[in-house]
Amino acid sequence: EEAGKGEYDHYMKKEIHEQPTSLAQAIEGRIDPENGRIALADFGPGTFADVSSVQFVACGTSYHAALYGSLSLNQAGVHSTALLANEYSVAAPPVDDETLVVAVTQSGETADTLSALRQARANGAYTVTVTNVVGSTAAREADDALFIRAGPEIGVAATKTFSSQAVMLTLLGQRIAADRRGKPPADLESLLPDLAAMPDEIERVLESSDAASIADRYRGSRSYFFIGRGLGYPVALEGALKFKEITYEHAEGFASGELKHGPLALVTSETPVFAVFTGDEDEKTLKNAEEAQTRGAPLIAVCPDDHPAVEIADAHLEIPDTSAALAGLLANVQLQLVSYHAANFLDRPIDKPRNLAKSVTVE
Ligand code: G6P
Questions:
Q1: Confidence category of residue 41, pLDDT binned at 50, 70, 90
Q2: What ipTM was predicted for this assembly?
Q3: 16, 62, 114, 131, best to mutate for ligand 1 pocket (most atoms within 8 Å of CB)
Q4: Ligand 1: which of 15, 61, 237 to mutate, most ligand atoms within 8 Å of CB?
């Protein structure tokens, strides 16, 4: 197993650095920037024209990708919700034959997700699995499967599979919106070239990131907060989950607008706030971040270089300019690196955090 790490100290770092390749594999043959089309040949000639609503079910990091996909689908005008698979059996929204239920699961073997998938199918929904593992239980049991082609992920903390899932769900969402309207959404024309450029943009982030020095600077803090709005919200949740999983330090992710409804009571000079700016009402997120900063919290802005947040932030993690639909994925790479370096300084067993398993096959 050691040999598989190549030049890297940990699988997690290797897998973070594999993202330019894994994303290129995810989109290969599935987008056509010149003709402004999404070609999900995985579904053959099938159409989503009759889909009236979409439910995503997933757990852990896959749930954050599912939330990302669900919010982007809502932004594209299609009714959708993301649900924790382990809550589905007690409070699933009703489904009918016009409901598409998408199970998002890297391994395709998570018991909670399989159980939600089976329930949705039994109730008459059309089901699709978005997974990394061909031949997995979820891929076999769903009506259709969409493979993210990320390659094996060994680190228990999911990294490259999150970005590939989020991109696949963005593509699927655009395709559903296009099928329903009979024409591609207006913003698809600018999205596709940005999508094609993602592998290079991630490479730029990996090459120039200040994540190690920022992780070092805020070492020993009491708690770490991550905030974001719109598509920045699932990225904030994922940033916090990654941080707590591998550093064992306390971290929480919030919707930026929720900070003032409670979490602000916890904010002190010992609670750095990582604010993710994705172009979804950034001016409001900036105000929320400033409120934390006024209470003494160091503010780390994750945004492009020319963003107004850079002027007030105590530290900056730069991301290249891209579509709002994709900016969060670049921010996520910066946050993955922060968690990795913070855990490394603490000498944690990064690839195998205590008490956690790569795939959880019990409910
Ligand atoms: C476990 C892993 C997480 C993962 C979750 C869902 O809890 O530790 O990293 O996100 O399962 O896994 P799945 O294979 O369904 O994506």
A1: confident
A2: 0.98
A3: 62
A4: 61
